[in-house]
Q: What sequence folds into this?
């Protein structure tokens, strides 16, 4: 049975999520402070973390930062009370796999949890992906260029992973949006272009080719 850690200090929300996940066949545990959430997340007993940002003591961003800093690749879905873009960007840059703004619908959270569990299970078969000096370890989410470690955020890593799995093929912005961001982002959003730019800065400008009018390709 897959096990989900819920870091949430509001008892009403924690109970709501816990009840829904139990009904969907997951085992759950609630942590009401950031410190408890981090300690439990580091035990390796859980398959996924649902992480509230506004936690007492240590906030969700700090929990995420320490978790990733320890090398954990555990999937993390952030819950944020503020619908603001700044929080979201900070969360994704900090290595979250997905986020939801409160209030949220349980079925939507469940769908995202299932999606993240599938992609982490799929990744376990092939932990190392390599292409022309670029190496990605999808289990620890570490990246190397010609043997040198490169620090990628969670979303940058996911984008690099999608590109390397389809090296040499052109992937459209829409494909990258749906596969890497995992849900319907505004198709007019330039988030893909922004992240391609981040990746070029970190991996080398000529590794990712722009195919005009079509999309991007790892060369
Ligand atoms: Ca809270």
A:
């Amino acid at each position: 049975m897959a096990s989900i850690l819920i870091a949430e200090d509001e008892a009403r929300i924690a109970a709501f999520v816990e009840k829904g996940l139990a009904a969907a066949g997951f085992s759950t545990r609630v942590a009401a402070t950031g410190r408890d959430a981090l300690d439990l997340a580091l035990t390796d007993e859980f398959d996924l973390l649902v992480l509230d940002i506004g936690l007492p003591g240590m906030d969700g961003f700090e929990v995420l930062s320490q978790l990733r800093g320890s090398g954990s690749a555990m999937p993390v879905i952030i819950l944020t009370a503020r619908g603001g873009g700044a929080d979201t960007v900070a969360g994704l840059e900090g290595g979250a796999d997905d986020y939801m703004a409160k209030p949220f619908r349980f079925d939507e959270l469940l769908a995202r949890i299932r999606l993240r569990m599938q992609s982490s299970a799929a990744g376990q078969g092939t932990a190392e992906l390599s292409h022309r000096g670029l190496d990605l370890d999808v289990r620890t989410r570490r990246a190397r260029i010609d043997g040198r470690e490169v620090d990628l955020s969670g979303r940058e890593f996911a984008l690099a992973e999608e590109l390397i799995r389809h090296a040499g093929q052109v992937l459209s912005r829409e494909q990258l949006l749906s596969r890497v961001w995992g849900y319907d982002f505004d198709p007019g959003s330039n988030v893909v272009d922004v992240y391609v730019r981040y990746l070029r800065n970190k991996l080398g400008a000529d590794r990712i080719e722009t195919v005009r009018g079509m999309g991007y390709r790892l060369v």
